[in-house]
Amino acid sequence: MTQNSDIVSEPGKRDRQAPAGLGRLQGVFVIASVLLPIVIAYVVFYTGAGMPEDTVNRGDLLQPPVDIKGLTFVEEEQGPVNLTEQEGKWRYLIVPGEHCGDACEELLYTSRQVHIRLGKRAGRVERMLVGTAPLSETRREALHKQHPRLRLVRLDAQSLQRLQRQTVTANTEGPRALLVDQRGFAMMAYDNDHSGNQLLKDIKRLLKYSYEQ
């Protein structure tokens, strides 16, 4: 009788254990269903795999992406800016030459138009103009008037020169707009040879496949 009781009890134990294992498996599937589309989107975007030739990203890819979180930015009239403590947004970092001349002004205008055309999604993107010296009050007022959403930040000259070197591509050697992802990595570069439509298509696709923080 004892042996029969043991034999009967074993299936019962397995039955009681099954739901826990099933729950863990369901949890794995839920997590995978959330993360997998994001991973696939990034792979497709960076490599163009599985996409028609005319839908691949328009910007020049930075390989490898450049981590800018460690840079010490100083915002005009605000003070130091730590991007790791900022809201996770997509950012256009406008990197001019020694000063913001005509080419830089054109990039500012293009990025502003792209920002406007994002409509209700514009809040997920911001633009930052990088310089090395404080701006005059007249210059600040002019920029705020022309570009209400533009953040004015500074880097020390050495850091800005290093950033310029790290983000040079075969097609972008002068003033450029760097597209920085939500984690703080500059991933693509644009110059005035890129149209506003090209910038817009890239950022729209990224906003579509990334989550809002």
Automatic annotation (TrEMBL):
It comes from the Bacteria. The chain crosses the membrane at residues 28-49. Keywords: Membrane, Transmembrane, Transmembrane helix. Gene3D superfamilies: Glutaredoxin (3.40.30.10). This is SCO family protein.
